[in-house]
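Q: Please design a sequence for this.
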């Protein structure tokens, strides 16, 4: 089984990914600097339930399964931290314990500041986002170029890179005919926040690395993810992933579910016609797995649109309202003045066949899935702080 390195292994997607691969017999190493947790403390946004530290979670995982997830706490904007993961040096490997076997076959890059509102709180948070995200990606690109060109980079992009164009969205690439000649280009991108701008720049960096140094890159244009439990987290509550319900770090469906349970009118921005592609957290894991099993070629930037179905904000709110009502909650929709600058009514037709063709079997957003999420939230209702749900970061 191959060695998988997960950058951002303490995060909402990183920790479930670590357990998923560990459970399937892979050697797994995770790196994180608690950026997300520290930002939650700094901005005073609560998580739904307390989560043990990454080191503690790896210990619990080992105790319950006998499997080992190696942990390094370090800031990946520091090139030396990044480089030690690929050059086999001993410098930082004490933290990974003596069994660290070095060079990974696959690296999954999640280690970014992932919030659009965070990136637009003010110039300070914009700077943090730009510096953090671009330095981590650049450090990764150079470490692989210098030490480990065969390592497959799986990088998380976002569907938000494309914006909401008035034409169908292709999977990463588009062929253009101009004045009688044809060529293939990255599909046009138009970010709706500075966070999304960094994701576009990440893509450009790695496309440069693929062209210049034959790096192997899979770039997953992911939509907003929802969900809490995965096969592995069901083993023990302490293994659950971090779950935010605030406006900064909570994703839309996760927020709506908490709002329903807290008797807080669902915060639909503007007309609610904003349509996006969504996926269950379990499908994120499958998509990473299928991408890992079928590596990109040397010099290839392979792009997939990582979504399973599309919904407008109104449709999501109505689904939560229906299931909430069945469970006795009086769920009301509140169309707030939109704090964001975005189209509220638009064409949206993305292509997302690639990952299904690789073998991903989608989990769709059924009432049963919504009820499962409601149950976990209900069990933790006492922790919900209504004052952090919406503060109105505008741009
Ligand atoms: N969750 C979603 O709905 C979603 C949707 C589209 C794309 N994505 C992308 O997926 C990736 C993971 O998202 P997530 O929701 O798990 O976010 P997250 O914030 O929960 O996870 C990212 C992790 O990376 C860590 N990190 C950040 N900067 C770091 C640094 N300099 N050094 C070491 N660790 C660092 C954070 O502490 C955090 O634990 C991000 O790149 C995000 O842009 C997420």
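A: Design:
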């Amino acid at each position: 089984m191959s060695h998988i390195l997960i950058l951002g292994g303490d995060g909402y997607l990183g920790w479930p990914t670590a357990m998923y691969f560990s459970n399937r017999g892979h050697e797994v190493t995770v790196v994180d600097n608690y950026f997300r947790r520290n930002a939650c403390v700094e901005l005073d946004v609560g998580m739904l339930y307390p989560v043990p530290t990454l080191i503690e979670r790896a210990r619990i995982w080992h105790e319950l399964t006998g499997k080992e997830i190696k942990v390094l706490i370090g800031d990946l904007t520091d090139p030396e931290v990044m480089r030690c993961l690929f050059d086999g040096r001993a410098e930082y490997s004490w933290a990974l314990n003596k069994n660290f076997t070095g060079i990974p076959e696959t690296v999954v890059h999640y280690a970014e500041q992932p919030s659009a509102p965070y990136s637009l709180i003010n110039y300070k948070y914009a700077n943090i986002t730009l510096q953090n995200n671009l330095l981590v990606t650049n450090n990764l690109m150079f470490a692989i170029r210098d030490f480990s060109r065969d390592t497959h980079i799986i990088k998380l992009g976002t569907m938000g890179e494309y914006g909401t164009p008035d034409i169908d969205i292709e999977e990463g690439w588009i062929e253009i005919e101009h004045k009688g000649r044809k060529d293939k280009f990255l599909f046009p991108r138009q970010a709706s926040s500075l966070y999304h701008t960094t994701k576009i720049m990440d893509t450009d960096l790695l496309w440069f690395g693929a062209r210049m140094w034959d790096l192997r890159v899979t770039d997953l244009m992911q939509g907003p993810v929802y969900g809490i439990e995965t096969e592995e987290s069901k083993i023990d509550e302490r293994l659950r992933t971090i779950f935010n319900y605030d406006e900064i770090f909570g994703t839309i469906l996760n927020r709506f579910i908490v709002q329903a349970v807290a008797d807080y009118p669902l915060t639909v921005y503007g007309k609610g016609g904003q349509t996006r592609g969504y996926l269950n957290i379990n499908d994120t894991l499958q998509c990473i797995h299928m991408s890992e099993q079928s590596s990109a070629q040397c010099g290839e930037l392979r792009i997939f649109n990582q979504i399973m179905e599309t919904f407008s904000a109104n449709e999501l709110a109505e689904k939560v309202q229906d299931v909430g009502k069945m469970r006795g909650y009086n769920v009301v929709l509140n169309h707030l003045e939109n704090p964001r600058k975005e189209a509220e009514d638009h064409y949206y037709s993305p292509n997302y066949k690639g990952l299904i063709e690789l073998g991903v079997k989608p989990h769709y957003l059924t009432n049963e899935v919504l009820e499962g999420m409601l149950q976990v939230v209900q069990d933790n209702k006492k922790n919900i702080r209504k004052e952090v749900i919406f503060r109105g970061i505008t741009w």
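Q: Thanks. Anything notable?
A: The pocket of nicotinamide-adenine-dinucleotide is lined by residues 8, 10-14, 31-36, 75-77, 110-112, 114, 132, 136, 156, 158, 222, 224-225, 251 (CB under 6 Å). The chain has twelve helices and 14 strands.
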